[in-house]
Amino acid sequence: MEEVAVIEDPAAAEASLDPIRARLLAELAVPGSATMLAAKTGLPRQKVNYHLKTLERHGLVELLEERRKGNVNERVMRATAAAYVISPAALPTVQPDPARSPDRLSARWLLAVAAQLVRDVGALITGATAARKRLATFAIDGTVRFASAADRAAFADELATAVAALVSKYHDESAENGRDHRIVVAVHPSVPPESRPG
Fold first, then answer.
1. Contact present, 95 and 111 (Cβ < 8 Å)
2. Is residue 38 part of a domain?
3. Which domain holds residue 20?
């Protein structure tokens, strides 16, 4: 089971967003059969089987084993990942594009950059998984409390200057075997865990 899987296919995204299927995916972090899931969810086994087949068709659950129980073969399934992220690539015609309004102080631009980050890293994870290679990435996540809007603006200017200096120090346009890496730095107000949707 992968830690996180990125859903890029529109049909798989639609399948995962169905409330019953989302619940089954959550339950299948621990392997189970349709009979076990029916008991946990209160749904008829036939309905659970129907949803499991849809999830399996889209690669969101996988068969671990089949075992004979009485007159039936019991299929033990498991989610293919502990968590799923739906890439903006699943909705290609309406995905946000940072180039539409490149205003680094705009929340909508930040969201478009974040969507591009999810899309790109999702594609990289898919490729690395298929090639059975590790993906080299780096991220920093932290919190800073500003005393004033002026302090926040000064911090943003100083951060931009520091990042620009690092980029100019390490960027080597002439590196024949070099590989471009994207840098995303974001500052936004924190959302307390109890206020987050879901």
1. no
2. yes
3. 2-84
